[in-house]
Give the backbone structure.
Amino acid sequence: MPEQPHEPEGAIAGTGMGGAMDLGTSEAATLERAPGGPRGTPGGPPGGRARSLWSDAWRDLRRNPVFLISALVILFLVFISVWPSAIASGSPLKCDLAKAQDGAAPGAPFGYDGQGCNVYTRTVYGARSSVTVGVLATLGVAVLGSVLGALAGYFGGAWDSILSRLTDIFFAIPVVLGGLVLLSVVTSNTVWPVIGFMVLLGWPQVSRIARGSVITAKHNDYVQAARALGASDTRILLRHIAPNAVAPVIVVATIALGTYIALEATLSYLGVGLKPPSVSWGIDISAASPYVRNAPHALLWPSGALAITVLAFIMLGDAVRDALDPKLR
């Protein structure tokens, strides 16, 4: 019996169970047009380029009204922190006791505090200290915690055990009580002691998150392949593990930024954070508390600015978390 000629329009496809089945021309073409197909096919990604986690996250963030609103608020806060004189004239340290506890007036829409200082001007200038402390403390915590956690998660062994016990010790220290003890002996009026304290007690949380992410990432096939090809530990950590383990750290750091701003205000309110003549929302809230019945505006405006700032960073962190979590897609 003559051998049947090969049909070029046919195709063979795996069944997914170790076998194969014949497909006609239409079925084969359908598979080629499936989503995620080869480059240039109608079903592939736009431009023939696969989207990454970061591009998908940015696309989702641009469509999220929570992210847009919080980002606009934060950009405005950064702007007035860098150029407070753009929207507030005069010095926040210039006070007139004759105007103490007065209400709104031309040039002072928020009124005057107990020392006769312009509440509007001090509220605007107070954003600089709060944002500076929050941003620098978050950067320090993220860098220190990420490095220590990544090393512990990648190498394991004794280094991992020592770091785990060290983080347990730091977790046992109450943050506010630790600030009262450590910062009470500091006489500096700069932001650096407050930032250093926050970094000292804040890195364990980021360290544990980075450690868990690295432990998960280092068992992936692409890491094993890089190790088999002779890649060094430094290259594996920086080129293969870090880009895939940094997302949880970014989410936690974004949310923590608002927490650090609130912590700075709390410590300044208690008298161990920033100290006069520094301008801070915590200092103004503390100074306005005794006469809140006579001049509530002096307490309302810095408190409102603090609450809006913390809320904006928390909302931003929530939006980033939703965008970077594949389970929520």
User: Anything to note?
Assistant: Residues 1-44 have pLDDT under 50 and may be disordered.
